[in-house]
Amino acid sequence: MKALNPETLRAPFAAYSHGTEIPCGMRLIRTSGQLGIEADDSIPDSPFDQAVICFGNIRAILAEGGMTPEDVVHVTGYVTAREHMAGYMRARDAFIGDASRLPSSTLLIVSGFTKPEFKVEVEVWAAQAVAE
């Protein structure tokens, strides 16, 4: 895979790439949007804590499919208010870590989710070479 960051564009605002090239023949995982709810149905108030749960769920889904955060090619995050962006970004950056290739990324501010307690939702695409 290859990060695509044309020199003619302004540099990304944060730790992401403008695009990601996924070669033909790669195995893909697409997650559903993950909300900040624990297995015991508890929902923390903090957007950061909710985002940590989202990314923990994504890490588990990727592991189930034999992948890691290093295989993530795109992250889409949704927050319910501009002031939730910092907590989300801190959790996202921790999830991405020191990746050798930064994924592309989109962050949207939305009016809400199924429960008013939810402040963050995250979904990803991941890709990995097919084992031969």
From TrEMBL:
PANTHER family: BLR7761 PROTEIN, YJGH FAMILY PROTEIN. The lineage of its organism: Bacteria, Pseudomonadati, Pseudomonadota, Alphaproteobacteria, Rhodobacterales. Its EC number is 3.5.-.-. CDD domains: YjgF_YER057c_UK114_family. InterPro entries: RutC-like_sf, YjgF/YER057c/UK114. Keywords: Hydrolase. GO terms for molecular function: hydrolase activity. It comes from the Bacteria. It comes from Lutimaribacter marinistellae. It is an enzyme of class 3 (hydrolase). This is RidA family protein.
